Give the backbone structure.
Amino acid sequence: MEFKPDFNSAAEQWQRFWDGTNSRPAISAVVPKAGVVPVENPGWFSIMPGKDPGPAIGQLLGWAETHDFLCEAIPFYYLEFAADHFASLLGADLTFRESGQGGWAVPFVDDLDSADIHFDRDGRWWKHTVELAQALRARCDGKLMIASCSLVANVDALAAVYGAEKLLLAMVEEPDAVHRALTQIDQAHGEILDALSELLDYDRFGSINRHGMYCRGRINVTQCDFSCMIGPGMFGEFVVPYLRKELQRLDGGEYHLDGPDAIRHVEALCALDELDLIQWVPGAGEPSTRDWSSLYARIDELGKGQLRHGNSDEAISMWRELRNPKLYVILKAESRAAVEDCVAELEKPRA
């Protein structure tokens, strides 16, 4: 890979990470190259339907060319139109904010008993996905990777296509109909994953998710933000079985745990053998300022790895405190030398 000359060694380290045989955390550190003017990353939602992708792809290549991707960092672009991108591939339309920075799905399912929820290969959002993925690949293959949209399936997808309030009521009054719809969504998840694997040539390149985690096979991010609105009983009935199936299709299993009201499900999540690690996101406002060290310790005690952010000192502390070796740190660093010093410390044997 042109902008990641040590790609093979990074891929090997990622494999050790997934195997749980890594002797240090997986580290992603991106720093400007010395002696050049760094180009800014165009960011998410810079390549969108109805917009010429050429300028953004040019900026993306400029960013990759003017930065060093150290340790396990791999240059990539995250191709997603909205948080409900997956729902759009089931036939939902997307509505966007005036800023153009993301959007949401418009529910279209009226009745769960008669619903036909499936992967819409003829739908315009899949066609846009293919068109823009091909435009990216034409200029970026062999230089950087493309991360597919996140496959936000299970009850998150059902809430997107049916409506959250209606779904909450149906879980109580029509559980069989909810399971029928979730089964359809789960089938679509497998078909969409297969289609993305072909579109982005996972067999040749492997795959990368929106957090920069790489796998020689198939990787994505699983989640259920809807879980904040339900208790453990409903989570066990309506989420866990489908989440397990999603994870079984992946070669690297990450879960996005979002918000304090989702913490009640940590034990159920950590009981999933297929799950490798959890990314905790406290959300905006007061939760973002709280000390979550007890949650991190709890996840570790329950046997799962973690995705964390931090500077060198914080990364070293995490590695010394946590027992599960599947720790992935997105490292805040300003120079190659600082990263090298951090890695040298991390490679020392743990007590």
Summary: The domain at 7-346 is CATH 3.20.20.210 (TIM Barrel). The longest strand covers residues 26-32. The two ends are 37 Å apart (CA to CA).
